[in-house]
Amino acid sequence: MKMKSLEKRLLNLETIVLVLLFVFISFFGGMMNLTVLTTNDGRMPVYWEIDSTKSHFSFQNFDEVQNPYLSDIFHIGNRIFSLGDLITITSLIFIFVVLVNYIYQKRKLNEIQN
Fold first, then answer.
1. Does this model's pTM top 0.90?
2. Backbone dihedral region of 98: left (phi > 0), alpha (psi from -120 to 50 degrees) or beta?
């Protein structure tokens, strides 16, 4: 009986730690995007040919912008992403997976206990 209680506490602790870790990583990805935005006059540089808008502008040479490796340089399908976008999206997916796993494991422990 006490073992199940300990298992539940460890599961809760593990989930909290993992979620906080991925929230921090997601925050880090957002800070990467904020860095490139603030160093380029509030607009995101895009390393592909696009029509310039209020929030994005196109560049062809990495010397034209500041922090070019943090700008939108990854072309995946018909979308364009920055390193910060990919880190943020990936960490949010991992948060979802951790929470789904937590719910599954908690139900499994409850079934075993009953």
1. no
2. alpha
